[in-house]
Amino acid sequence: MDMKKRIHLELRNRTPSDVKELVLDNCRSNEGKIEGLTDEFEELEFLSTINVGLTTVAHLPKLNKLKKLELSDNRISGGLEVLAEKCPNLTHLNLSGNKIKDLSTIEPLKELGTLKSLDLFNCEVTNLNEYRDNVFKLLPQLTYLDGYDKDDKEAPDSDAEVYAEGLDDDEEDEDDEEEYDEDAAPGDEEEEEGEEDEEENEEEEEDDLSGEVGRERLMRFAFCETMNCNKILNMYAALSKIRSVKFLEFEDNFVCIIFP
User: Fold this and answer.
1) Number of structural domains found in the chain
2) Does the keyword Repeat apply (predicted)?
């Protein structure tokens, strides 16, 4: 699927100005260029174009609110000076798996004063002598390089944190609902108890009919676009501290995260 069609699908009947996160991973770019993305995406904060065949970011539109840009596993070898103009508030940039060979290629990033995290895994530049020390000197605004700070302390996984915060919010909402139920009138409680008994009976019947599922109840689920292995593992590690998590791979490059 080409990038324009993918963007149209990702909109899901929304206007570009309503979109804050846009994932275009594994689609096809035309001649290595970004296409179909316009400055109408004025509220966009996260953009992911992993493995789409990009060779340049010159056609990136003006995205003043963009904070995180995923460009890993492409064929970009230069032209990064446009990022300071097009994405002046960028804080996280992932260029892993691109054709970046020397420090002069990333030197324009020093104009991104808000840049805190830069990833260059699997780029030739990482093989240079004193690579980490030189990058931190070149880009003093950086806090993390390839996931670690100057003292080799690992950066927190922002994606896992976001999902964990979402789970906490859900639990708070559930608690609020329970408190509201406690305040209900006695008559309403009797009706609700009767309905709950009926639902429990139905659930038991369904459990008996499905040996594979047993008595496990799936409380909620979420779909997300294909992410690289590290992100999935990091997210799994963070979420498993809160509750049991299962990952099932489906067709069309989707991963399902199930919270039983």
Assistant:
1) 2
2) yes
